[in-house]
Amino acid sequence: MSVERPRIGVVALGRPTFDVPFAEEILAKAWSTLESIDAELIGQPELLFDADAVRAALPALKEQQLDMLLLLQVTFTDATMTVELGKQIDAPLVMWSFPEARTGGRLRLNSFCGVNLASHALSRNDLSIDYVHADADSPAAKEELEVYARAGAIANDLRGTKLKLVGQHPDGFDACNFNEEELKSKFGVEVDRIPVIDFINEVKELPDDVADAPYERRAKDFPNLAELDQDATRKTLKVYSKLRAEADENNYKGIAVRCWPDFFTEYGCAACGALALLNEDRTPAGCEADMMGVVTSLTLQHAAQGSVFNTDLVDVNTEDDTVVFWHCGQAPIDMADTDQPIQGTIHSNRKLPLLSEFALKPGRITMARFSQGHGKMRLLLAGGEMIKAPLAFSGTAGTAKLDVPVKQFLDTMINEGLEHHTALTYGEHRPVMRAVAKRLGIEVVELT
């Protein structure tokens, strides 16, 4: 089982009083659709007609952790065994029903009515389902099932995840607060902490040559690397080496760092470039010790199977309906617009390297944030298009058109109390994120 290849338990339900040959034909097509999904299937392509047959299938379903339990409601059945399966199998429950032709003759399957009956019975037992109603060979059904399976895998993967927190957030940055107990209960995530000065002292003790490999890596990307302050640049890369080693040794899936003022004042470099490299490694990293920003980035990275950028929304233009997403210089380099300059730079306020500098490439984007606005955990989502535009501000930045007018977006964003950090990735990944939120019992707020 993995986020890339979820594990799906499958049970096909039927009754012999309906058209069994037709039901078996539907099941064969549905199973073929399931086999085209990149997933591990637990179950058999056979109709289970009674309680004894369903009970016989239970041990195989219970012995492995499932990301999704899929009930194929091939014909109408009563809800007895559906409720039993829902109670006994610790996995999100999805039901698939099948349309049939309106011939004026026999109702051969009555599949959807079985789902309707089951969903009511499950609701009376505090159990809920997702459902798909589509033909057995429907591409849309396959897509929906992939979303639900991926969401279950992401929720399972988050349980037991360890993250690293270096330092505390700056004073007045309430957006970077987090409730450790809620993080554990909602997401299953644990946090290891270290004071920022202790971490910096550990970096200072490292030999200087730990910066050699990341320096060579960055030199391939930044033609001006040798023109920057070399002492400060190599310090940033030592910070990266330490964070990378910590993540590898302790299986940290993400890292939040109090970047300022300490790395500037106590070590003489910017942490931003180290965080950029971690983001490129697919170890989401965030500044200002924003742990919920890292949790959002990690979840979105799983959904997208691609890199993520923890951003600030820094500029809006209601006349041309554009916004600018920016951060000092920590975007992963695969987000760069290769038609424009890509280079290293210094922090615009502190005047020290190492930061990345480039404009973000055009393309469809998904924005997300597990938000604590109004004192409750919610997932805020938005979609839009990053457009081809010159670099708006030094560092890493992109100009975007959102799916709704900017004024409407701003009104909703401010009213909902959105934090100043949001996670950004390329592609349309809101369906998976919505499904993950449902798995975690978290309300979704649509910003666009």
Automatic annotation (TrEMBL):
What GO CC annotations are associated with the protein?
A: cytoplasm
Which UniProt keyword terms apply here? Carbohydrate metabolism, Isomerase
SUPFAM superfamilies xref list:
FucI/AraA C-terminal domain-like, FucI/AraA N-terminal and middle domains
Q: Which Pfam families match?
A: Fucose_iso_C (PF02952)
Pinpoint the L-fucose isomerase C-terminal domain residues.
360-446
Give GO terms: molecular function aspect only: L-fucose isomerase activity
Does the UniProt entry include the keyword Thylakoid? no
Biological process (GO) annotations held by this record are: fucose metabolic process
Q: Which PANTHER family match?
A: FUCOSE ISOMERASE, L-FUCOSE ISOMERASE C-TERMINAL DOMAIN-CONTAINING PROTEIN
Q: What is this protein called?
A: Fucose isomerase
